[in-house]
Amino acid sequence: MEKVSRRNFMKKAVAVSAGAGIASTVFSQKSSAEEKEASQEKFIFPKSFIFGAGTAAYQIEGAWNVDGKGESIWDRWTHMQGNTKYNADVACDHYNRWKEDVAIMKQLNLDCYRFSISWPRVMPDGKGKINQKGLDFYKKLTDELLNNGIKPAITLFHWDTPQKLQDLGGWANRDIVDWFADYANIMFKALGDRVPIWTTHNEPWVFTIAGHTYGKQAPGLKDLPTALLTTHNALLAHGKAVQAYRASGSKGKMGITLSTSWNLPSDEKNENDIKAANLIRRSHIEWFSDPIYKGAYPEDVWKKYADAGIPMPEIKPGDMSLIQSPIDFLGLNFYGPNVVKHEDDNYWPYGVRFLNERSDLGSNMWKADELTRMLLFISDRYNKPEMMITENGYNGADTDFVDRNNKIQDVIRKEYTYQHIKAVYDAIQQGVNMSAYLHWSFIDNFEWGTWSRMGLVYRDYANNNRIIKESGYWYANIIKDKCLLF
Ligand code: FCB
Fold this sequence. Notes:
By secondary structure, the chain is of the alpha/beta class. It is built from 18 helices and 18 strands. It has one domain: Glycosidases (TIM Barrel), CATH 3.20.20.80. 45% of the residues are buried. The chain binds beta-D-fucopyranose (FCB). Beta-D-fucopyranose is lined by residues 56, 202-203, 206, 259, 333, 391, 440, 447-448, 454.
């Protein structure tokens, strides 16, 4: 991997043209556009580094009850009045437009497309009967990607639990460990020979803790003890699926994707704020990654819950070694840091408050350097595992606009993405083993009820037509040369 500064780039260019026997005057005849390009710093990634983009089944597919698909907890949640303004019954209509979408991915030069499988599309009841039409959809999509030279990266679970399983307790029922492993096995049998990258869960903190404590997303519970139980069951299910993957003889990479709550203390000199920020990070990231890499939950977080009188999940013999089944890579989703302030015990159970600002973060609350810091921290903690950024992107709902030439101008997304890819580059320079950057998202999608525009591709709400945004064209160039420049 090589960083080419403006000076070295000029030297190299001269050397190349001289080596080819071209008079050096040719170089001085460069167009102003080329000169401009040469004046920028370039950050070159290894050829093997993967650039891509991602989506989630519920957020783009639509066809919520078509061809035998079963109901998911997100179908149920969005159909219940008052929960969300919109539902994703049609979403981006990707279930019908998948071919057109792959053609757009090809135009974007994506090395890789990360998508999730809708469990109830493949198994309408979550267990038992397989829905062949659902399975065929993912087979067609996978083959189309491969035919276009795009690596499929499959997420087995991106939050859309089959409603029939939710009726039996969902993630709070320990039987889900076997249900999930059976479903995973069906997918490995169908696509294990062709798909090079797999993850079990997307962001377990979100569908367990957030989904069962705050009442703001499916399944909408408000019960922390149940939430903690679901974290343990989700980790067991992850471990069992990893073992099933190994047993299937598939040769790809298997991992998990975690959300990252990377916290900055509201006052960097205040010991209590620093402790509070660490506690929140540990309850969010290490709560999942420590069991996987170290075979134990973070003791201080466990104690905090137990001291607050919360009944903790039962850990049975063999549980932690199942969870610790070796994975090939860790997927991380990063959007920006949080700001945390220490408070008293009235702020149950963590004794902290999240703030919406810190003067040095500006109104956007991003600070891409923090991504580098986080990657270094996780890399050190777990002895340099392979890691991928499985999601990162700019929530530009109110800034994207269609200009007079029908181009989608989204310069802030470009700036955001540039800074975060650069942060990944910096981490690699410092020895972190990063193998991929997957942008969120491929296309403007449901965004769990908000329809926030986060895509490289603009979706016209009126007719579902797609238009590649300016950031998309820019990203396509980065991918082509594996070289970051603005
Ligand atoms: C993540 C989700 C993803 C998307 C982004 C913005 O938490 O995994 O589906 O909504 O946030």
